[in-house]
Each structure stands twice: as C-alpha cells, then as structure tokens.
Design goal:
CATH class of the largest domain: Alpha Beta
Number of domains: 2
Oligomer: single chain
Strand content: 5-15%
Number of strands: 9
Order of helices and strands: HHEHEHHHHEHEHEEHEHHHEHHHE
CATH topology of the largest domain: Rossmann fold
Radius of gyration: 22 Å
CATH superfamily of the largest domain: Vaccinia Virus protein VP39
Structural class: alpha/beta
Shape: globular
Helix content: 40-55%
Distance between the termini: 60 Å
Number of helices: 16
Length: about 425
C-alpha cells in the first residue's frame, strides 16, 4: 500500500495520514501508542527544551522558523503525537514519529548530526536516571542463535536485490568506501569501493594462490576482486538472495572455478585458510556471540595466516548502553545487531588468541559513502515504489541512511580496518 500525499512538504519525503498506513505491516506507526500523560509531559519538557537549546525548532511552538542561514531545522507537523510517542517509547518513538510523517526536516542528516553530537548531554545529569522510563529490553527472539541469525540476516538482506541496486553503485558494495577527497565529486563510488577492497586484500596479503575465506559475501565484489588476483576464495553468507546474485556475477566474470559461495553460518566453517576477510559483519553477530566469532576466525587460520576486518565501532560506554536496550535500528533495520567498541574487539579477539597488528579508522569516508547512498535512494524513489515498498518504508530508509550518516559526521561512530594474527601480545 502506498499512502497518498495529503499535504505538501519542503522535504522530498511524503507526508500522509496515519489512517492510510498499512496497519498489518506497520502496526506501531499506523496508530498512536496508549497515552502515558506523565511520560508525555516529561518528554515534552526535556525533549522540547533540548531541541530549543540546540536551535532545532522554533521556541514559539516547535515549528521551523524558515530563517535562512541558521542551521538545520525540524518541522513538527503534529507536536502532540511527536511527544506522545517519545514519552511512550523514547528514541524508538522518535523514529516512528518520522515514519508516520509527524515531523520532518529540509536537512535531515544535519538535524541528526546535531543531535548525535550532543547525545550524551541533551538530558541534564540529575535527570538521566529517568532514561529507564523509555528504554525497552531487546526481545529474546532477536538473539543470534544459528536459527536466529538466519532470520535476522534475511529480514534485512533479503528485502530485494533490486532495492539495494537502486542506491548502491554497480559493484553492489554495501560498506564504507575509501575516497581521495571530499566531497566525492571527481571519482566514482565504484572506484572508491575498489580502493577499500584492495586495501583489505593488501592488509591480508592476498595474492596469486592465496586460500581466502570471506565471512559475509555481500553481492560478491570482494570475492571477485580477490579471484582476479589469483586467490581461491570460499565466501559465506546467510542471505539466499545475495548468494544467488553473487554466483551469477561470478559466473558472468568467468571465475566460478576460483570462487565458491556457501550459504553457511560462520560457526560452521570448514577448512584452514591463508587469509580471512570479514567486512562489516561483526555488527550482525551480537555481543553474546563475539567469543564464538573470534574463535571461529582463529580456527580458520592456517599457520602464519592473517585476518583483515572492517568494522563499524562506537565508544565503549555507548556500546554498553546500546547493548542493554531495544533501539529503533534494532527494531526496524538490523534485528539482533550491535556495533562493537574497539575495546570489545580487542578483548574478545585477544581472548581467542589473536593479536591486533594494525587498526586504522576513517569514519569521515563512511559519512561520505552514506551521503551518496542517501541521495541515490531519494533519486530512485519511483524505482523503489515500483518494487512494492510503500511511503512508510521510504521514510524509514531515509531516516536509517541519514541517521547513520549523522553518526559518522558527529564522530559518534567510526569505521576501522583491523589486522589480526594468531598469538597474544607479551
């Protein structure tokens, strides 16, 4: 169902009536949560105060002033619903309010960057003890057991290969690129993605004859790039749709004799390899299973082997807080996912008998990658709609891409390329 537009907006997002939302698909967006007057009043006071303090809304009622040159602004189309959702469900409610069209911005990543940069001081210190009023516990069904991982991965990556093709570059690479300059006006995203892949393959010392294991196939570009170097690649994924398209791309390149795509959990790895590469896959493992993940990496290494990881990271205290709560991202985008801290990676890899040889960050490159994805997603709105995705989905993914971009622009998030080898530091 695609809700019709019911009133104009200065942003490209559609605004619509909640009554027109598909209640079966979006039950928590189509209606307002039950009223909790005390919580709503607290949310109106604390959140409204924070938004005014950061000059994100007009203090005369929460609507955009329209004054040029004063930074990003929010437009609250339904302030009562906005505060009611936040009062009931915190940041999940904040996201659902956007999905419902109750607030908007002509600079969504700008607004979210301001909020991310002040995430730890928006609420006065004496009142932070009230956070549990809005925090909900992650559902047990999202645990990344072998069966749970299969379900969680497919909820995101099996949405539609054509959906991802609508906003990714022709390499279909769904991870941070590495650019030579910002903004990325003088090189293609595909070129920047190949630069990232080549850096990882160089880090792992992949060359002619290397036995390479990739954990997290994506749509096969890294495996293709490694095979073109002469490596023999085994690549694992839990996404059936990704596996099918990756195999098709590998056949088209004439490299099926060098690359084997397996639909297999990382816990079921077979064999030993000279190199292991895993790109932005640890975020889908879940903290409970990080020990199993790093043990599997170590056990897959042949003597003298190297592991090259690309991982999104956040601060350790922020990770601990996020791990304990159900978030908008875990509810709608990456069920069961958790971004690790550098400390968590070091702790769990070290416990598995691995040592860190190199660890380099480049978060600003991810912000630029996400900007390009978001612009392409918005430009291909009609294509996405034609695939059967409605207006709520559009707004959900616009928020997801802008939210992620803001995390890197504010340096709340980082992305690292990490080299691990067997053996602990003395």
């Amino acid at each position: 169902m695609v809700p019709r537009q019911t009133h104009a907006s200065s942003s490209p997002g559609l605004l619509f009536s909640r009554h027109e939302v598909d209640t079966a698909r979006w039950p928590d967006v189509s209606g307002l949560p039950s009223a909790r007057p005390g919580h709503t009043a607290v949310a109106r006071h604390l959140v409204g105060r924070a938004l005014r303090k950061l000059s994100l809304v007009d203090p005369r009622g929460g609507r955009r002033t329209g004054v040029a040159g004063t930074g990003p602004r929010m437009s609250l189309h339904d302030p009562d619903a906005f505060y009611r959702r936040i009062g009931r469900d915190g940041l999940i409610g904040f996201g659902e309010s956007y999905m419902a069209g109750e607030w908007d911005s002509d600079d969504l990543p700008g607004v979210l960057t301001v909020l991310a940069a002040h995430a730890d001081d928006l609420v006065p210190a004496p009142l932070r003890r009230l956070r549990p009023m809005w925090a909900s516990v992650r559902p047990g069904s999202d645990r990344n057991t072998p069966h749970g991982s299969l379900r969680n991965i497919r909820r995101h990556y099996d949405l539609s290969n054509d959906l991802f093709a609508a906003f990714l570059d022709p390499t279909l690479t769904y991870s941070s690129a590495v650019f030579t300059a910002f903004p990325a006006r003088f090189e293609s995203l595909a070129t920047a993605q190949h630069r990232k892949i080549d850096r990882l393959l160089d880090l792992a010392q992949v060359h002619d004859g290397t036995r390479l294991l990739e954990i997290g196939t994506g749509w096969g570009e890294l495996a293709l790039r490694a095979a073109q170097r002469g490596a023999r690649v085994t690549t694992l994924t839990l996404s059936v749709e990704q596996a099918e398209l990756a195999r098709e791309r590998i056949r088209s390149a004439g490299l099926e004799d060098r690359v084997e795509v397996q639909v297999r959990d990382y816990r079921d790895i077979e064999g030993r390899y000279d190199a292991v590469v895993s790109v932005e896959m640890i975020e889908a493992v879940g903290a409970e299973y990080w020990p199993s993940y790093f043990t599997a990496l170590r056990d897959a290494l042949a003597p003298g082997g190297r592991i090259a990881l690309q991982a999104i990271t956040m601060g350790h205290q922020q990770m601990l807080h996020t791990a304990a709560t159900h978030t908008w991202i875990s509810k709608y985008i990456f069920p069961g996912g958790l971004i690790p801290s550098r400390e968590a990676i070091a702790e769990h890899s070290g416990a598995a008998g691995l040592r860190t040889v190199a660890d380099n960050g480049y978060g600003e490159h991810y912000a630029e990658t996400l900007r390009l994805w978001r612009e392409r997603f918005t430009a291909h709105r009609e294509t996405v709609t034609g695939l059967g995705f409605d207006a709520v989905f559009h707004r959900m993914w616009e928020l997801y891409l802008a939210y992620s971009e803001a995390g890197f622009r504010s340096r709340y998030l980082d992305v690292r390329q990490i080299l691990l080898t067997e053996g602990t530091l003395r």
